[in-house]
Amino acid sequence: MNALWYYVIGFIVVWVLAYLLKDKYNITMDGIVLMLKTDKLKDVIDRIANACPRFWKWYMNISIPVGIFLIILMVVSLVWSIQLMFETPTVSLILPGVDIPGSPIYIPFASGLIALATVLIIHEGGHGILSRVEGISVDSVGLLLFAIIPGAFVEPNQDEIDKANGISKLRIYFAGPMFNVGLAIIALLVVAGIGGFLATENVYTTDGMEISSVVPASPAEGILSDGMVITQVNNQTTLNTTSYTKAVNNTHIGDNLTIATNSGTYNVVTGSNPNNSTRPYIGIRTQEHKIVSPEAREKYGTILPAILSQLEELFSMIFFLNLAVGTFNLLPMKPLDGGLILEELINIKIRPDRRKQFNDTLNHYTRKLPMNMRCWISRRFNTVLNFISHHEISEKKSGVMIRTISSIIMVIIVMLLIYGLVPGLLDLL
Fold first, then answer.
1. How far apart are the first and last CA of the chain?
2. For residues 89 and 100, is the Cβ–Cβ distance under 8 A?
3. Phi, psi dihedrals of residue 419, rounded to the nearest 5°
């Protein structure tokens, strides 16, 4: 039984238990989302927000222009993906432990679930913290299960958000995705630190390519197994990623490959990739099989290298998923955060008093720059303000624009999913 069915069974069990206990524990059921509301976590958010409100505002003031750049980058990347979808998949479902044929990525089950939980908790926590920093109350906080994936949710008071000024709204809307991006950067630094230590100390050496996953319904299924270490492909040594890639790239569809492993020698006939019939396909995911070097074993033993290796994998997943989900949420499409941001940017109105506040804020953050640079930035900034002031868009027109843009992006995403994942999912099921 593949992991996808475990998700199905697990969700059914959790859903039944939640239904039986919903009155006792105040559980809300909304489709495949189960929510447990509590007031206890409000105090946690308040303490975090009140500990350093100036820092959170400073962080978001920097994050807003960065976030706008990421929105533009995500739109460009999405459009660019259209011309690639017939050659290689560019999107994937994030289901830890589920290996979909033809999918460009595979998320390990344990580290993937933990990393995905950090995505949800940090994202919602970011919205909650900035809501309190901006003086907006939080109606409810709680824990949730999306299917069987754990997370958290925060519900700021919508009436108070509607009455807030545009900058406050942008800080709140940007907070979730940019908190994800911030955590991704921290995780990347941790991975770089661990990887640097392992490399400089020569902790590991490689003796082949370990099979991390055999894709269901692939040529390798039933022949190769997870955990096997590949040492040769068609008599070509594969001790590391470079040599393995070279050996595999020399194959064609229908080739009978002789694959030597630590468990014996096997023959696999290559098939065609589910998403590109012109490419050969074995159906395995590999990583370098690392063993502790004799010098490192003598110096550090075996426990510390093993712990560091697991931490490196975990923080790699935290980096990847927080960056992927955080930037995806910036797509200018409702109900994503990017859609709310775009709506606010379209509807922004520059009153004279707000204009002075914008300029005062700009002068504050550029005060240490040379005067000629400050003047240049100020002139360009006020040019933008003048344009916005003289090209205000009615609420009706902005609504049409948002719906149109959201529909176009949704169609593109559906197209990418159909061409990239549907063939693999059908094979999996």
1. 10
2. no
3. -75, -25
Same domain, 113 and 30: yes
Query: Residue 324, Cα to own-chain centre: how many angstroms?
Result: 3
Q: For residue 261, is pLDDT > 80?
A: yes
Tell me, yes or no, whether 298 lies in a domain.
Answer: no
**Nearest of 14, 110, 91 to residue 311 by alpha carbon:** 110
The confidence band for 1, taking pLDDT boundaries of 50, 70 and 90, is: very low
The total domain count for the chain is 3
Question: With helix as H, strand as E and coil as C, how does 350-408 read?
Answer: CCHHHHHHHHHHHHHHCCCCCHHHHHHHHHHHHHHHHHHHHCCCCHHHHHHHHHHHHHH
Q: Are 142 and 121 in contact (CB under 8 A)?
A: no
Query: In terms of domains, do 357 and 410 share one?
Result: no
What is residue 342's three-state secondary structure? helix
Q: Residue 328 and residue 349: Cα distance in Å, rounded? A: 27
Note the pLDDT of residue 373: 84
Residues 225 and 361 in one domain: no
Query: Contact 173/337 with Cβ under 8 angstroms?
Result: yes
Tokens of 129: 């913290």
pTM for the full predicted model:
0.79
Please check whether residue 308 lies inside any domain of the structure.
no
The answer to whether 261 and 230 are in contact (CB under 8 A) is: yes
For residues 416, 421, 426 and 429, what is the CA-based torsion angle, rounded to 10 degrees?
A: -140
List residues bridging with 153 in a β-sheet. Answer: 142
| Burial class for 2, CB neighbours closer than 10 Å (0-12, 13-18, 19+) | middle
